[in-house]
Amino acid sequence: MRFRDINGQQPAELELAPMIDVVFQLLIFFIVTWQFARFERDMDISVPSAEQAENKDRQAGEIIINVRQDGTIVLNGLVTERDDLLAKLASISEAYPDQAVILRGSAEADFQAIIHVLDVVKEAGIWNVAFATTKPES
Fold first, then answer.
1. Can you tell me whether residue 67 is helix, strand or coil?
2. How many CA atoms lie within 13 A of 36 on its CB side?
3. Residue range of the domain that includes 88
4. Neighbour count for residue 77 (Cβ, 10 Å)
5. How far apart are CA 107 and CA 130, in angstroms?
6. What is the pLDDT of residues 31-63, one digit of tens each?
7. Residue 80 and residue 49: Cα distance in Å, rounded?
């Protein structure tokens, strides 16, 4: 009878190709998600504070419109004029009737500029609008 020699087996080798594939997949995922998060946070804007501010679950595909202190409208990182904003939002509203929009107006911005953007959103046919706020510092 012939027995196998347990000590004679070669140790299993570590396969690097699958591990490198997983690392590249993670790298691509984090780069893509970072790119989308960049549009959300405009550093020129400090949103107003509210006592009842809540962190709601985010919806996929939300549009974030920033209104800077000087009244400049920023949509997805690009400065946009009223007519361009209306055209973009109207086309999105036709394709996605329940499209969500987050309006981030600067606390120092003229209130009329924020209402102006809100009018454009309403004119485009979008009804799902939320205002970004922060909790006050204690």
1. strand
2. 9
3. 39-131
4. 13
5. 15
6. 887 766 555 555 566 666 666 656 666 666 788
7. 26
* Segment 58-73, tens digit of pLDDT: 666 788 888 888 888 9
**Which has the closest alpha carbon to 24: 15, 32, 12?**
32
Residue 125: both structure tokens together? 């046919």
Question: Is position 81 within any domain?
Answer: yes
Q: Which of 79, 77, 74 is nearest to 106 (CA)?
A: 74
Element (H, E) at 94: helix 82-95
Domain tally, the chain: 1
Q: What is the pTM of this model?
A: 0.61
Q: Is 20 among the domain residues? A: no
Does the residue 31 lie in any domain? no
- The strands making up 100-105's β-sheet, listed across from edge to edge, are 78-80, 73-75, 63-67, 100-105, 128-131
